[in-house]
Amino acid sequence: MLYFVTGIVFLPGWVALARRIGKKRAWLLSIAINTGAFVGVFFLGPGDALIYGVLVFFSGIGLGATLALPSSIQADVIDYDELLTGERREGRYIGLWSIAKKLAAAVGVGAGLSILGLAGYIPNAEQPEAVLLALRVFMRWYPRYATWSPWRSPLPIPFRKLRISAFSRRSSVAKRGIP
């Protein structure tokens, strides 16, 4: 609950920051905060609930942006694609986005559960040290690797300015009756 409430509270700040520094930069910063907060989880042990709560709070700061900004960037990409091709293909983009998210979740869960099984996970029992170590490693390193892809994605175009100028030109052409 703390995680989600924190994300909701900080979302307006992320929107303002995205307007100021750009959606991609704000999104990447939110990812760094969201996943970076969990570095400390590796070192937690029994009885560290308060410290875990603090880490959850800091991770929640980035949550709102990690949920809202990718969809906003996707809308910009769809508009940019229309500008380049003259076609509206949002169905393709949203379909591929949906499949990619589901595939990533399936691979993550499948790999995670497989690795926990190899580490000796026992259902409904106190876990061996190897399983606890595997969980600590997952919490510490997996989010880091999962966030590398946006850093490498080419989104340098200031979409908002481009979109406003391109679509206003298209609109003025349409008003003059030119196909």
Polypeptide structure, described:
With 179 residues, the protein is an all-alpha fold. It contains seven helices and no strands. The chain has helices at 2-21, 23-36, 49-85, 90-119, 129-146, 148-152, 159-175. The longest helix has 37 residues, at 49-85. Residues 172-179 have low confidence and may be disordered.
Largest sheet: none
CATH topology: Growth Hormone, Chain: A
- What distance lies between the first and last C-alpha atoms, to the nearest angstrom? 53 Å
Strand/helix succession: HHHHHHH
Q: Determine and state the CATH class.
A: Mainly Alpha
Count of extended strands: 0
Mean pLDDT: 81
Q: What is the tally of helical segments?
A: 7
Instruction: Provide the gyration radius in Å.
Output: 21 Å
Structural class: mainly alpha
Number of domains as seen in the coordinates: 1
* Low-confidence runs: 172-179
Tell me what the CATH architecture is.
Up-down Bundle
Range of helix content: over 70%
What percent strand?
under 5%
Question: Layout of helices and strands, plus pairs?
Answer:
Layout (H helix, E strand, L loop, with lengths): L1 H20 L1 H14 L12 H37 L4 H30 L9 H18 L1 H5 L6 H17 L4
Name a few traits of the molecule.
179 residues, mainly alpha, 7 helices, 79% helix, flat, disordered C terminus
What's a concise summary of this model?
The protein has one domain (2-175): Growth Hormone, Chain: A.
